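Protocol step 6 of 9: fold each sequence in the batch and record its structure tokens directly after the sequence line. For illustration, a two-sequence batch is reproduced in full.

Sequence one:
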Amino acid sequence: ATEDEQKRKNMLTSAGAVRMWARKSLAQGMISSAARMGAARGMASMEAYEDFGKHVFSGTVADEYLKKHGASGDILNDPTWTQTHADTVAAAVLDWAVDNGANVFCHWFQPMAASGVRHGQTGQVQNMMMKFNSKGEPEFDFKGKDLIKGETDGSSYPNGGLRATHTAGGYLAIDTSSPIFLRGDTIFVPSAFVSYYGAALDEKTPLLRANAALDKHGTRLLKQLGLDTNGGLRANIGLEQEIFLVPRDAYYKRPDLQLTGRTVIGRDAPRGQEMCDHYMAPLSSATPALACMQEIQDECWKMGIPLKTRHREVAPGQFEFAPLFGSNTTQIDQNIWVMQIIEEVAPRHGLAALLQEKPFNDVNGSGKHNNWSMATADGVQLLAPNAINEATGNDDAFAVIMAAVVAAVDTHGDLMRMAIASPGNDFRLGACEAPPAIVSTYLGDDMTFYLEHFKDGKGKGAYNPGVKTLDLGTREVLPFTVPAEDRNRTSPFPYGGARFEFRAVGSSQNVSMVNTVLNTAVAEKFAEFADRIDAGEDALTIAKETLEKHWRVIFNGDNYCEEAQAMLTERGIWRIDSGVEAIHTITSEKNTTLFEKMHVLTKEECEAREIILHDHYTGTVEMEAGCLIDMINQHIIPSVKSAGLGPLADLEAAVGTIKSAMAEIHAAESSYKKAQLARVLRLETMIDIRAVCDAAEEVVPANLWTLATYKELLFLDSHVDAAESENHFY
């Protein structure tokens, strides 16, 4: 071996060296490529990004392989390919798989109540794309029938009574709205998961139905407003993903983090987020966090996930990723993969990733802002005033659409609250990091002024968003323009120009239910408007009356202000402080009627989901309570005894208190009652016991305290040995 080859072999003994060598090779390759081309700006070459989407079967990738079989990527645009070209697509997928080192496939589906407990939040059975011939020799075998549907046991997933062990069939059908993708040696086929009788056993199926409802009724309304869409209507979303990264060795010293994703005890460190020093601070190369985030982005990039943004968040140890927006089914599938990849990449860098909404007390928790919009198939944005008015030739089209959305929020704020009732959001909503559990919408002063004049007949014409100029009084920074409206981070559902941002969504959630609710609620209002217009009423009159009726839900002020919260509550805005009670609203007569009318969920499916969500809540609390008992018995009491000081008697009594509460939960007859009792245990009893545990931590000497502390968990910059720098500049 040459000296250079030997150096390379030595370097490849560490993951860090692998990344360093790859970057050096990439840089050298780009420089040599530029030299060959005689280019002056070689670093602008896109050659380094040619792997984007290589592992997703869509676009040019699908087109290349389908052409080998006499078809093209265009056939994937029509869902009926599953009936007309299934074998052709399967053959192309097999070729693509083999060329990329894959020989396994699975139908990839999303069981209910998976957040916080199920790794990856999905279900799958992986099968080799092979069979053995009559000579006992292996050969590839992957047909259209294998690709488009499958069958599995449906009784062992949360089903709320929709299935039983003696009626256990679960059926899988490919979701043609979200592309097939590849990771490692496996092809993943996004699929819906239903019972033998078609009942939805998953998160995806209701969303697809809600998409159909929005498409149907939105298309009707747009035609009445002057736009005959070609290809229908779809909802787009963009999902911001917040996480914590903590040292893995400290993570292993926290049974609560390992088993529940949050700390059920823990004294605050002397430093928190009071100096706002972590937010958007530089991503330091002296800790593993930056390299971890880079590798996460690299993996996502190959799978066609445009994970564009990364930065530090507010709390110590907190970070965020954000992609470009896209269709809701694709974005949700991609976000689920992002969460799984985050959890799997972090250990390679000596880290543990925490996706739970509130891992730590007294610092910000994590959310997943759901930026929601609507557009026609050819890209006309319904919530962009100029675009929709121009497309319809109707200056009032935007106002009519906004009236429907405002009415949907006011009417179905309870369902919006239900959709974000994840267990972790118990500790987050209204805690100056997420909006309170009062569902209003922020439109901004300009938009509010416009709609108010529209409804009152004081003005007519298009809405033109204002801008203002900022002049800093310097020569170096010239005056520049900014939107006239500021950001309202306290609102649950603010309008942000061409989109609404559902800010209260929890970080660990599969957001299918969130978007099912948004689409269904708005589809209902679109249908009501369209029905009334069909009956001879005027669209403007309908919109004005609707805004007048639902104007109360618009609030542009500070949602954290207690006086404002009292005022909104008096107005009759939906306010449900308890996540358990919010879940219960899915089976109210109003809501089951809505879902059945829009053909999204049957009454039985709604009832099953209430049971599943309440059981998920109770199960989460039981795990947390069990961890607290073990930590008191196995760590805190021994530490207190070794130190000879601390609240020993109170700690011993606390164990009995928790066990009694858990016994009461187990004795309750319904899932709803169990969840109500679990909430009391979690938000009252366990919080009181936490104070006792934290008091013990305060007085026990550090060398006798066996659990990782907040100081050790939260401050990567201070408590992780500086890694060998991998940043090289050429």
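Sequence two, same batch, same settings:
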Amino acid sequence: DLVTTRNSVTKTTTACFEPSLDYCVLKMPRWDLKKFNRVSNKLGSSMLSVGEVMAIGRTFEEVMQKACRMVNPALDGIEGAGSGLTSDEIPLEEQLSTPTDTRLFAVQRALEEGWGVDKVHDLTKIDKWFLSKLQNIASMRNALVKSGNLEKSFADNAVDRMRTLKIAGFSDRQIANYSNLLPLQQGAAQVRDLRKSLGVTPCVKQIDTLAAEFPANTNYLYMTYSGNQDDVSSSFDGPVMDSADSFTPRKEFQNRVRSVSMAEKRHDAVQESKDRGVIVLGCGAYCIGSSVEFDWCAVSAVRQLRKDGFKSIIINYNPETVSTDYDESDRLYFEEMSLERVLDIYEREGAAGVVVSVGGQIPNNLAGPLAESGAHILGTSARDIERAEDRRQFSDMLDDLGVKQPQWSVLSSKDEAVEFSNKVGFPVLVRPSFVLSGAAMRVASDETELRNFLDLAADVADDKPIVVTKFILGAKEIEFDGVANGGKILNYAIGEHLENAGVHSGDATVILPAQKLYVGTIRQIKKSAAAIAKALNITGPFNIQFMGIENDVMVIECNLRASRTFPFVSKTLNANFISLATRAMCGLNVTPYNISLLDIDYVCVKAPMFSFTRLRGADPTLGVEMASTGEVACFGDDAHGAFLQSLLATGFKLPKDGAPVLISIASDPFRHEFAQSAQTLSKMGYKLLGTPGTASFYEDHYGLDITEVTKPVDKDDSGPGSALEAIKEGGVELVINISEGTTRRDEITAGYLVRRAAVDFGIGLITNVKCAVWLAIAMGKGMETFKAKSISEFYSLHKN
């Protein structure tokens, strides 16, 4: 009944009112195609995006520029050649006529270079109205570039010019860049000061669905320069501001009347924080490395804030998230998470502080710039976040603490990196700083690869250090997720990766509680984690990744924020680590959860989800840069059962009884490791097929009955007796392809063709020897049949 159903936004009208909008909304997809080898970036009828953003404003130009900054934080707005996303080698006409993930920027480049709307329309078939709006942006941009000087650009009619640019969505960094104000962060601050001195500031508008014809009571907000008054009021004149060289709370919180007791001062400070409110920065667009796990963390933080009586303010721009439901927080800003906009909201709300550690890497990277601008960062200080994120500072700190780590060196030149790598021996790992999901992280096995990977890392790292470390072969990777308060660990969880180090943690199969770690290894991990937490004075969530060989433990990296495994850990242990961390960051009294990992009578296994079937031509292999687009987790009475159920939950198909299984393993050590599992599959009645080297190895060393098939030379090499023919027409229902351990080009090419065929024909594919062994063990135990249990049944085992 539309007449009686109330409008939940206005709360004063019914659902039968026709919506009337005084704002413009633009949804833009996010692609991560560059993370995959051999993948095609052409767009078509099959969805390839991994996330999306939603920009709200009052002009098309404004929301387009906002959306570009949202979808790629490295962009300052919509750019052509300046985006770095167009090619100088491919003709611009071809870039315009072919739909790809970067065509929008090619369109903008053409308009910046003076191409007319009609010409661009003929090549793209994009509506001329949209193109004319993009041309407006290009014209304003070209005028600023031609001036090249801030004072010159705003010498006349400064207020009108500045407002016009801001209405068109230009950011302070864009204006600084076009005005040659370098470095950009200081230049943007200079533009910000000028803008505020001119009285050009954004106003806060509500999403009210009826264009302000009726009063609205919603907290669903956005900011725009196309307005002259706010729709909502602020309770405070200004936010809590720290001095630029100090990350301690505001002086008023420290210098109360001396006669008041310390307990009363603490109470007053907390109460003022509750009244002023706390800003939580959300996860941004879903992408490879940052997905719903960080939204869970942000929502958990907001819910804990509200439970403890704090006014909660969230900033996020992802329409797929729970955090952008307007009833989850006291105020929702559907806005970009740029330094400029976060400061606008921080100052406008008079907030007590900002939580940057629950939304992933984007908000975490804002900690330093926000603190330098005077914003109060709740939890671990911005200085200590930088000490953890900066590879050089962190490695120096570990050396000072006496905590073991792989041999490392900071890149100052390619020749020095090559000299270091020759000294410690290849392979080596190239690691940029301040990145998420291992962006541009690569394992180099020779000098040529090293030089190529250093170029890639330099593009991603900007001006941040790049570290080259010795890559340890055959090491086990271990996850340490914890919550600390004042440098003291409150709660922690230790999970082990099934795959050896070299597979990104986001792509790894994680087992919790850890099943196969030495007691001495666990002690070393706890000791090192405690030393790091104390040295960085951690307050809030953190994650440390270790690697271990036998009883030798080394630190890989530390993130002073929630990791993507926090939801997994919290749900496995039935203890919300983010709720605990939120209370610690807000200065409340915290009591650790009573968790004894040794008393847990069940196992939970997290397995990655991949989208290789949608990514045409992508090589379905794993490495140190994350490639998965989701994850699942399953409980079990033992580790193998939980592993198999989690694998099945990803959509993996087990082979039917007696079906052919194709095995192709490139190196003898991995062939030996899988030998017992191959025997298990043979005893179970599966028909084993093998590429020449694999088949002869198992026949000669283990007497296995295995049929040889030829390795493919190209994608059309699918004649009788070939591996591709067995996959396409021979009924193969499981492919185990382990290419790791070889550098031979023919092996690499053949392996890719086999893997890609398995994905294209919907056949179960395993590319890691540890996972292959565990799968064979689980199948050998008949664990594909199981009795389902509710999660409460597993939790009751823990309580007992």
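Proceed to step 7 once all outputs are recorded. Observation for sequence two: The first strand starts at residue 24 and ends at 30.
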